[in-house]
Amino acid sequence: MLKIGRDVLIIALTTVALGELSLRLYNYVDPLPIFYSDSYNRFRGKPFEPDYSFHLNSEGFKDVEFAKAKTAGTIRILGIGDSFAFGVVPYEYNYLTLVEQELKQAGHNIELINMGIPNIGPREYLSLLVREGFVLDPDTVLLSFFIGNDFEIERRRSVLSYSYVASLLTYALARWSKFEGQIVHGPARYDDNEPTFTDDAYLNLELARSTIFRRNNAGFEERLEATMSYLSQIKRLCDDRKIGLTIALIPDEMQMDTPLQRRVIAASRLSAPAFDFTLPNRLLRARLEELKIDYIDLLTEFSAHAANERLYRRNDSHWNIAGNGLAARILRQHVSAHLGSSNN
Question: What CATH number corresponds to the domain at position 317?
Fold first, then answer.
């Protein structure tokens, strides 16, 4: 009996060892970014649920239903991002919706699929693209990067993630499991002027985010490296498949709102020279240029318009209807230029 148990154990350990070796060899030849876990589905919208007067599609995305197979002659763009891409405004005012409409009106046979999921970041953007994006055969990925909270914090790896066999099993279970999704806005009536947070709550939110704007911040350098590790993988995987990639840099409201900057600086108990509200953009742009990643930084144009009109919801770091409209005009011009259009 002991001999049988020992033989079974030896066979099991040998099988696992061979599995580990085989997966590592295969990953060395053809890297597959499935050997770490992702959990973006916990923030995903619930399929078919109302979002203001709109209903999410069968995938839980804030977009109309789309076919998995791309129609011949169609240029397919994947819009990937967090709550900015998902949008706090109704569907018809969302900047990705507007970009698609304006490109169609300019004569492009275009399909822009909004795959935005609230509360995710670069790590999940990569996972979402690999698990659900590439199968849609996109021509371009338009990734929305929010300066305020998209810089990654290095996360501790779980013990299981060090095993390729365990990671593969975790991946398979995640694909097989059914996730119900969450209701984000429900059938509520949208009010563009209603504040989301109280003055104090919003100040505390922006104060917590303001650390990325502090000069000589070694912690931010680590976050930038973690962020670039995911963005560089997205770039490599897109290049391998001959898929275009554009990253839109979305500014935080405090980067252009001087009164808000003053409140944040006062609450931080630091001096004004301790902050540089354009620093993350400059550092990120330099790294994107090193990797030859196409990008468009919205900070300059948003700053120019912010003096004349409100672009963010009150006490909310997300764009209002006007902000979505401005972003759509800027992004449509950028995307259209890459499509070789003269209709800008």
Answer: 3.40.50.1110
Please give the model's pTM, rounded to 2 decimal places.
0.82
| 11 in a structural domain | no
Is 10 within a domain? no
Q: For residue range 269-291, list pLDDT tens digits in order.
A: 999 999 999 999 999 999 999 99
Q: How many domains does the chain have?
A: 1
Q: What is the per-residue pLDDT across 202-260, written as a single tens digit (0 to 9) for each?
A: 999 999 999 999 999 989 999 999 999 999 999 999 999 999 999 999 999 999 999 99
| Dist CA 227 CA 232 (whole Å) | 9
Closest CA to 342 of 139, 108, 36: 108
Amino acid letter, residue 278: T
One DSSP character per residue, 23-76 reads HHHHHHHS--TTSS---GGGGPBPTT-EETTEE--TTS-SS----SSPPTT-EE
Please report whether residue 38 resides in a domain. no
Maximum distance among all Cα pairs of the chain, rounded to whole angstroms? 83
